[in-house]
């Protein structure tokens, strides 16, 4: 199978499986798992935060961040397209009694400070208390500029808000900008990282923040059913993901560009290679009504894509240059049929 649906489909490498096999473990709810403890200390240091907590998923890590920054009746500002608004089942509202205040994302994924300011509520019993700004990087494959992050820091300082980053794919952002991860993380009070996407771990995300914030998150994680026991098996995978797979993201980005450039040569297909910044390519067809057929016909050839218009294609560890060439050949002949 050549699977373009997401970078979540990556499977653990042999070295990762070996590390999981060899992991020292204990009961992490008692704080006894040496692999989890070492991972949390190491990642906090690597990203210049005081503390870190290992979580079952990015959704859980974002929810813990929101519930630790905000009290009942608070609100967070975020993008209309933000994962932690749109794609996490309304968890902040359901489980945290926290209200989102979404703001339309600009074309480049940023949020306009003038618009954000207009949504900050006065301190008054009529209103929820605005306490947090949550950004996402990358967002739909786009990288937020470092200059924008610096402005966001100034903005939250001026308005006495906290600043969170949903950094599910923050290593893709650092790779695209060719900077150390701390060049990005330095602006935030908290940040999440997904290990189970392009970094190739089977399970797991991290939340980073101050000692006090992570202590709160640790309590909420248990309340939400996320207290795990011999989780060191997963910490071992996480360690390999960060140590061995960050450097491979560059290849995913190069592959995405190659994919976009070659798709664009096909009559009836449009991508914008100039807009490919990381590992995602968005594709439009001149005959969108053919998409369902395309999905089915490709599946018969062991190629998986998600339906949608534009179609989102994601490159990752388990997709090679040769796989992309195979895909280009198959999709070219299918699209040619639709043109008649
Ligand atoms: C995938 C993703 C998440 C959630 O991660 P899960 O592990 O799927 O829960 C959060 N934010 C962004 C931007 C993501 O892409």
TrEMBL record:
<dbReference type="GO" id="GO:0006545">
    <property type="term" value="P:glycine biosynthetic process"/>
</dbReference>
<dbReference type="GO" id="GO:0006567">
    <property type="term" value="P:L-threonine catabolic process"/>
</dbReference>
<dbReference type="InterPro" id="IPR015424">
    <property type="entry name" value="PyrdxlP-dep_Trfase"/>
</dbReference>
<dbReference type="GO" id="GO:0008732">
    <property type="term" value="F:L-allo-threonine aldolase activity"/>
</dbReference>
<dbReference type="InterPro" id="IPR015421">
    <property type="entry name" value="PyrdxlP-dep_Trfase_major"/>
</dbReference>
<dbReference type="InterPro" id="IPR001597">
    <property type="entry name" value="ArAA_b-elim_lyase/Thr_aldolase"/>
</dbReference>
<protein>
    <submittedName>
        <fullName>L-threonine aldolase</fullName>
    </submittedName>
</protein>
<comment type="subunit">
    <text>Homotetramer.</text>
</comment>
<dbReference type="Pfam" id="PF01212">
    <property type="entry name" value="Beta_elim_lyase"/>
</dbReference>
<keyword id="KW-0663">Pyridoxal phosphate</keyword>
<dbReference type="InterPro" id="IPR015422">
    <property type="entry name" value="PyrdxlP-dep_Trfase_small"/>
</dbReference>
<dbReference type="InterPro" id="IPR023603">
    <property type="entry name" value="Low_specificity_L-TA-like"/>
</dbReference>
<feature type="domain" description="Aromatic amino acid beta-eliminating lyase/threonine aldolase">
    <location>
        <begin position="3"/>
        <end position="284"/>
    </location>
</feature>
<feature type="modified residue" description="N6-(pyridoxal phosphate)lysine">
    <location>
        <position position="197"/>
    </location>
</feature>
<keyword id="KW-0456">Lyase</keyword>
<dbReference type="GO" id="GO:0005829">
    <property type="term" value="C:cytosol"/>
</dbReference>
<comment type="similarity">
    <text>Belongs to the threonine aldolase family.</text>
</comment>
């Amino acid at each position: 199978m050549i699977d373009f649906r997401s970078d979540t489909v990556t499977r653990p490498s042999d070295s990762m499986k070996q590390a999981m096999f060899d992991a020292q473990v204990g009961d992490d709810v008692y704080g006894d798992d040496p692999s989890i403890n070492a991972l949390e200390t190491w990642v906090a240091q690597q990203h210049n935060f005081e503390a870190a907590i290992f979580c079952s998923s990015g959704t859980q890590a974002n929810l813990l961040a929101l519930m630790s920054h905000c009290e009942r009746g608070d609100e967070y500002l975020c993008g209309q397209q933000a994962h932690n608004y749109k794609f996490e089942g309304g968890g902040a509202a359901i489980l945290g009694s926290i209200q989102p205040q979404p703001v339309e994302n600009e074309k480049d994924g940023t949020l306009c400070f003038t618009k954000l300011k207009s949504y900050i509520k006065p301190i008054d019993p009529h209103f929820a208390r605005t306490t947090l700004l949550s950004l996402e990087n990358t967002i739909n494959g786009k990288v937020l500029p470092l200059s924008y992050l610096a402005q966001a820091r100034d903005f939250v300082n001026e308005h006495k808000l906290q600043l969170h980053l949903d950094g599910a794919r923050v290593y893709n952002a650092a790779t695209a900008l060719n900077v150390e991860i701390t060049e990005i993380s330095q602006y935030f009070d908290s940040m999440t990282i997904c290990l189970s996407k392009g970094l190739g771990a089977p399970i797991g995300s991290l939340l980073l923040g101050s000692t006090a914030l992570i202590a709160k998150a640790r309590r909420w994680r248990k309340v939400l059913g996320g207290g795990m026991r011999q989780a060191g098996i997963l910490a071992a995978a996480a360690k390999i993901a960060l140590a061995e797979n960050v450097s491979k993201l560059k290849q995913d980005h190069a592959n995405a560009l190659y994919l976009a450039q070659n798709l664009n040569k096909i009559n009836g297909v449009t991508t914008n290679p100039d807009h490919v910044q990381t590992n995602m390519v968005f594709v439009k067809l001149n005959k969108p009504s053919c998409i369902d057929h395309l999905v089915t016909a490709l599946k018969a050839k062991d190629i998986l894509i998600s339906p949608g218009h534009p179609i989102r294609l994601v490159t990752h560890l388990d997709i090679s240059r040769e796989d992309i060439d195979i895909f280009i050949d198959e999709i070219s002949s299918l699209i040619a049929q639709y043109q008649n």
